[in-house]
Design brief:
Helices cover about 40% and strands about 15% of the residues. The chain is of the alpha/beta class. It starts with 8 loop residues before the first strand and ends with a helix.
């Protein structure tokens, strides 16, 4: 990665992106507006350890889908950081990125579904201690996630949504929940629709 100007605010949006779609872009654009971010990096995972390899498109295909979805906005970047470094766990990724770019303010971006399952992630409390986290509403997940283990554990460190623009420079652990227009789009639904097409055309 190229050297960054000190003081930049960058959102780290990790995922399988199998494939990336418009809702991913919407979250990234919303994050820039609501958190005052300069850029969002899409960290394409080589293989999410919590997801089965079966049905997972190749890294090249998923990386290309991110590049396609974010085209036209230079603030959005597809990153192969984990692939190049041989990293599998978010804990190690955020540690490596923050160490490589000291002076840059990073925020980890995730949907409410990921906040709910965060205690299953390796070193999840270490992630909270490394950089601020912004959690975005998702259909059917938000209420459950906000009453889950991670939200309860760090309830005292939650930043009110009205102060979300201060999150990037907050001392971790710090997190906020961002309400946004919800989308029913999902990568699973897109894959299922693609799988049905050959049958529908025969």
């Amino acid at each position: 990665m190229t050297r960054l100007h000190s003081g930049l605010r960058i959102g780290l949006y990790g995922g399988s992106f199998n494939p990336a779609h418009a809702a991913h872009r919407h979250l990234a654009v919303t994050a820039m507006a609501r958190l005052g971010l300069d850029q969002v990096w899409f960290l394409v995972s080589p293989q999410n350890p919590l997801k089965p390899a079966r049905g997972m498109a190749s890294f090249a295909e998923r990386f290309a889908s991110v590049s396609h979805v974010m085209r036209g906005d230079p603030r959005l970047r597809a990153c192969d950081f984990e692939q190049r470094r041989g990293l599998q766990f978010t804990r190690d990724t955020v540690k490596a990125i923050t160490a490589a770019h000291r002076g840059t303010h990073f925020v980890l971006l995730m949907g409410a579904d990921n906040l709910g399952q965060l205690p299953r992630w390796a070193g999840w409390q270490q992630i909270f201690a490394t950089l601020p986290i912004a959690v975005f509403a998702r259909p059917s997940y938000s209420l459950r996630a906000l009453s889950g283990k991670a939200a309860r554990r760090y309830a005292a460190r939650r930043v009110p949504e009205v102060r979300a623009r201060m999150l990037a420079t907050a001392t971790p652990p710090a997190w906020t929940f961002v309400r946004m227009k919800l989308s029913s789009l999902s990568a699973t639904a897109i894959r299922e629709a693609r799988a049905r097409k050959p049958e529908e055309t025969t």
